[in-house]
Specification:
This protein has 11 helices and 8 strands. By secondary structure, the protein is α/β, with parallel strands linked by helices. The longest helix has 26 residues.
């Protein structure tokens, strides 16, 4: 039986938990045959993951997930089959990392303006590179005994309305686009992102569109005109209806359609490897071969 997961994150993503080889081993335990690690704006896991996947007999596809903007929406675009040695990826990572480092203190100030008194040292204990993510703020706050009864945190504690994935839900509620602690980062636009991926020999695929295009599904048609080559129509974040909507869109435009869990580990504990709602993985496999992402 074919089992595919083309969207997961290693420790090279600031919100990822496991090493590349640990992810491969977890995929093996989950009976996943075809996998891709798509770290945020980073390709460092690919060499290690490719080696480990070969050792255990898993087909590995090199990937990346790039933050970008289209009109007024922040998006994630997956690049599959990329040449990870392309210098453009290191340039991209360094630019975004520099901005995130510069924004860390401002993010701490805005978080404390919500009614907290976190110290920089509490975030540094969770970060190995000085970048403070929204998930790290959630972890620090939820572990801080001073805030056990803080009303703002109640939805993220056990039994609360946002407790399924408390760290990332806190990020989405307070640090995502349009939220009170959002810090603007200058990302490439969609067209530039597609060009970076294609110039490295890759295929540009829109990640979890049901999540990023809520209320704006009509944008997808415009994005295809920008050169988008595929869509992650099967995602952990989608309802079955949304999965089907983008599956039909992929068929309409003759695009590559993919499936991915967006597994991170502790920041998204409710998300398991290989779970994405796809019931046509045999078709996905044919697509991967058609686009040259799998050669055998």
């Amino acid at each position: 039986m074919i089992k595919i997961d083309l969207h997961m994150h290693s420790e090279y993503s600031d919100d990822g938990e496991y090493t590349a080889c640990e992810l491969v081993e977890r995929c093996k335990q989950a009976n996943i045959n075809v996998m891709a690690i798509a770290d945020h704006n980073c390709v460092h896991a690919i060499t290690e993951a490719r080696r480990c996947a070969k050792e255990v007999g898993i087909t590995f596809i090199p990937g990346i997930e790039i933050d970008c903007d289209f009109r007024d929406v922040h998006l994630h675009v997956l690049g599959y089959g990329i040449d990870e040695t392309n210098a453009a990826f290191n340039t991209l990572e360094e630019d975004i990392r520099r901005q995130e480092l510069n924004n860390s203190d401002t993010k701490l100030r805005l978080t404390n303006e919500l009614g907290f008194d976190l110290k920089r040292s509490q975030l540094e204990a969770l970060s190995d590179n000085g970048v403070f993510t929204g998930e790290m703020f959630a972890e620090a706050l939820l572990k801080d005994e001073r805030y056990i009864e803080h009303p703002l945190l109640k939805p993220y504690r056990k039994g609360g309305s946002r407790c399924d994935n408390p760290y990332v839900n806190f990020f989405w509620d307070y640090y995502a686009q349009g939220k009170p602690c959002e810090i603007k980062v200058v990302y490439p636009d969609l067209k530039e992102t597609i060009n970076i991926i294609r110039q490295s020999g890759g295929i540009a695929v829109l990640a979890h569109p049901g999540n990023n295009l809520k209320g704006r599904f009509e944008y997808f048609d415009e994005m295809v005109k920008e050169g988008l080559q595929g869509v992650e129509c099967f995602s952990n974040y989608h309802t079955p209806q949304v999965n089907q909507y983008f599956y039909q869109k992929a068929k309409e435009y003759n695009l590559l359609f993919t499936c991915g869990s967006d597994f991170h580990g502790k920041t998204k504990p409710a998300i398991a490897l290989g779970v994405h709602g796809c019931d046509v993985e045999d078709e996905v496999m044919k697509q991967l071969k058609r686009y040259g992402l799998i050669t055998s």
